[in-house]
Structure formats: C-alpha cells, structure tokens
C-alpha cells in the first residue's frame, strides 16, 4: 500500500535573536511589528509561531517578560496559531533569564536546544560597515568566542519545571547528529514522551552544514533512534538554503520552518519584506507538490499539545 503522508506543519520563527536591525529593515523589532508579522504569517498558513522578544528601543534581544506581554496575548487573541516561546533566548542570557517568560506563560510549546554548542554568524560582520546601533557590531563579532549553553542538567531542569509541571511540549532543536542522541538519552530516561517534534537545523556555523546529504543522515538516524511512527520531523534551513532544504525535507515526509529568524531573504538577492512572504512561498511550493497544509488545530492533534485555552496568557 502506498504511503499516506500527513499534512505538513508550517512553523514561522518571526524575529529570533541572531540577526540585527542593520541586516534588514524588515526585521520585526517592536511589539507592534512582531504582532503584525505574526498575525500575517498565521493568516498565510503558519500553524506554529516561534517567538523571541526584542528591546523596542534598540532591537537587541531581550528576555524581559514585560516585553513578551506586549505582544504574545495580542497574537493569541488574533489567531488560532500555536504560540511557541523560545527557551534559547540568546547566547548572552542565563538559563533563568531564558525561562522567565515561558514559566510565566506556560505555553503549549517551547523550543529546546538539545545541547551546548558553538553558535555563530560572526563572519557576517565583515560585510557591514555602517551599523544602526552601537550594540550590533560587538554582538555579532562576539559570537566567535561564545557558547550556547544547554547542559544535560539544564535540559533536565527545563523538561521538569516547564514540561512536566506546566504541560508544555517542545520543539526539540537538533543542530547535529549528537543532539538526536541527547534527545534519545532523555527519552530512555523516561523524561520525554512522544510524539516528539524534532526540528533538524542546517547551515548554522557550529552545527551541521547545509549539504542535502546531512538531511538524509538526520532523518535516518532519527528513524533508528525513535522509530518513524514516534516522531514528527521538521526542517530548518538557514539563510539561502532555506527553501531548497525545506522542499527536500517535505518530499521526505517532513514539516517545515520559515521566518526572518532563519533567513532574511525570499530568493537570491531579494530581501523578504515579511515573514508572511516566506510562508506564502513555501506553502505554494508544498501545494504544487500535492502536499496539504496543516491547520493549527491539526498541528495540535499531531503533536499532542494541551490546547490554546490551557495557557497562562
């Protein structure tokens, strides 16, 4: 019997903490801009909205719950999308800072990086001579000497106080094959139960490169570790590799993630003017491949989420 593919979940990472205001005039920075772009992305077909916060004065990443509160409830009121709050924040934030808003909000879903790693885009600073804000250049160049920390104990703590205690499920961000084995460790320990939502990530310096072969490696490794029926696979291609890797992953039965956190472009040499533009593009590609797009409620059912009304915002 032919394989019947599930519908494809489109996630949209709206702003992130990596890109800076100088890199794109379209990067949403203020609560109003993040709200507007999130709503547009949901209307375009994104079932999950992955959210970071920015200081509205300078555009720098912030973990301040007061800033999150200026846009997260508004997005919830205006859309049915699953709201996914970062626990990654940025490499300069402590674990306590990164968890401050998730523990307050108790969302349906949070991202969870499955290991400590070098994470950098410092070569990008060489291409920029005029910066809008004084913080940007040292922020980007400083990534060369910083590590994103998520130790086994950190991950265990997040799984307990956010997952077990708050009923939040996770987008398990896996930047390398070893992260899949870290995830398997916690499954074996009984600290994580399926269905798993594995976000496999390609093209970040410090993680797996964007070679198509790496996508196959991650998919087959996940199959061996978890069994294909026990997890949902998703693909994040950074920068110019976004659309090509997402298309390949979707053909392989995966879900997809777009957004200005992951790439500032819509195509070669063309800046994306909004997250919604990227959502509409990948949706068109998927539908032309005869793949169906999951609604937010279908995504909730596929991922075993607790529901929109069970959050604290």
Describe the structure.
It comes from Noviherbaspirillum sedimenti. Pfam families: BKACE (PF05853). Keywords: Metal-binding, Transferase, Zinc. One of its GO terms (molecular function) is metal ion binding. InterPro entries: Aldolase_TIM, BKACE. The chain is α/β, with parallel strands linked by helices. The protein has one domain: Aldolase class I (TIM Barrel). It contains eleven helices and 14 strands. It has helices at residues 31-44, 65-68, 72-78, 95-105, 136-142, 152-164, 177-188, 212-226, 242-251, 275-288, 296-303; strands at residues 10-13, 48-51, 53-54, 61-62, 82-85, 109-113, 117-118, 147-148, 169-174, 196-202, 231-237, 255-258, 265-267, 270-271. The strands form four sheets. Strands 1-2-5-6-9-10-11-12 form an eight-stranded parallel beta barrel, surrounded by eight helices. Helix 1 packs parallel to helix 3 and helix 7 (177-188) runs parallel beside helix 8 (212-226). It is globular, with a radius of gyration of 18 Å. The chain starts with 9 loop residues before the first strand and ends in a 10-residue tail after the last helix.
Give the structure's gist in a few sentences.
The protein is of the alpha/beta class and 313 residues long.
């Amino acid at each position: 019997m032919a394989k019947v593919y599930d519908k494809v979940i489109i996630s949209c990472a709206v702003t992130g903490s990596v890109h800076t205001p100088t890199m794109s005039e379209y990067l949403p920075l203020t609560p109003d801009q993040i709200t507007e772009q999130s709503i547009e992305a949901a209307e375009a077909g994104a079932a999950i909205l992955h959210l970071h916060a920015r200081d509205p004065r300078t555009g720098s990443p912030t973990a301040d719950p007061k800033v999150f509160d200026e846009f997260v409830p508004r997005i919830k009121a205006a859309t049915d999308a699953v709201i996914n709050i970062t626990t990654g924040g940025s490499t300069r934030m402590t674990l306590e800072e990164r968890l401050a808003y998730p523990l307050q909000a108790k969302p349906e879903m949070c991202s969870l990086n499955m290991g400590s790693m070098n994470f950098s885009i410092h070569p990008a600073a060489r291409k920029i001579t005029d910066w809008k804000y004084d913080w940007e250049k040292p922020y980007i160049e400083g990534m060369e000497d910083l590590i994103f920390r998520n130790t086994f104990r950190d991950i265990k703590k997040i799984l307990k106080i956010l997952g077990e205690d708050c009923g939040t499920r996770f987008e398990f961000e896996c930047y390398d094959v070893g992260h899949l084995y870290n995830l398997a460790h916690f499954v074996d320990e009984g600290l994580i139960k399926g269905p798993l939502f594995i976000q496999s990530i390609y093209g970040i310096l410090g993680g797996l490169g964007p070679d198509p072969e790496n996508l196959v490696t991650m998919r087959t490794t996940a199959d061996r570790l978890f069994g294909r029926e026990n997890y949902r696979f998703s693909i994040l291609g950074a920068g110019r590799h976004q659309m090509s890797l997402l298309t390949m992953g979707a053909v392989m039965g995966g879900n997809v993630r777009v957004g200005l956190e992951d790439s500032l472009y819509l195509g070669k040499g063309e800046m994306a003017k909004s997250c919604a533009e990227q959502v509409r593009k990948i949706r068109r590609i998927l539908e032309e491949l005869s793949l169906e797009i999951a609604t937010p409620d279908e995504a909730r059912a596929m991922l075993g989420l607790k529901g929109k009304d069970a959050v604290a915002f």
